[in-house]
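Hi there,

I know you've been waiting on this one. I reran it after we fixed the sequence typo, so this is the corrected version. Both the input and the resulting structure follow.
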Amino acid sequence: FYSCLVFIFLVKLSRISWIQFNNIMSDLALKVEGLYKQYRLGVIGADTLKEDIKLTFAKLRGKSLSDVYKIDGNDRMVGDSEYVWALQDINFEVKQGEILGVIGKNGAGKSTLLKVLSKVTGPTKGSIKVNGRIASLLEVGTGMHPELTGRENIFLNGAILGMTKKEIKTKLDEIVEFSGIGKYLDTPVKRYSSGMKVRLGFAVAAHLEPDILIVDEVLAVGDNAFKEKAAKKMKEASEGEGRTVLLVSHNMDSIESICPNAALMSKGTIIGEGSSKDV
């Protein structure tokens, strides 16, 4: 009897917490608090038995990987160890229907941030609250099987993004038309150019109606016509359908024209936020 009462109390408590969480996130698509990501430099194993033995003896003598492999340190290393913070104390919010640009130099942590948000890799510590389903396009050919045809990869990517076969069939014609690979649809993806892979990947991610679309610099591979088409699609998704977009790019003109707001990253942390023009 008492167990039942405790169970009912916990259920009601969890329901109250969930309602409060929904109220907090009602106008937010994404909320990141105190996010850190740590990596270990060098390699855990080695290519040859000789290198493995060398590494083992170095560890026994108390030496680090940086001593063995002459890894240069940087300002994100943890003391003299081989550990480095790829992300440090990341905090930001993205409202529903907002297009947020993420900019910064190479090595600033932009791609790592997107990979953590896309659940490609987990955070070392911190919290990520997501309101909706995420679709991401991080690298050329991500999620595509080279031996499968374009058509088969559309269904494969759709399934990975959580869509049913019926839903994918409904959107198939739109995806093919947008990607512009019509006559190559039944050709193995391994014979596609980089631009064709990007067009197909973006078309799938954009047309399967995610709540949050995460796009890395891969659009730089496409030609100008496709860039304009992709930019138009992201604006339509944001303004017309209320979807949220995170866009990483080194093209400042694209960021300024597509994204009302932007975040500037440097050395694994966000050092500036605001309107794209100011940032």
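Quick highlight: The longest strand covers residues 28-40.

Best,
R. S.
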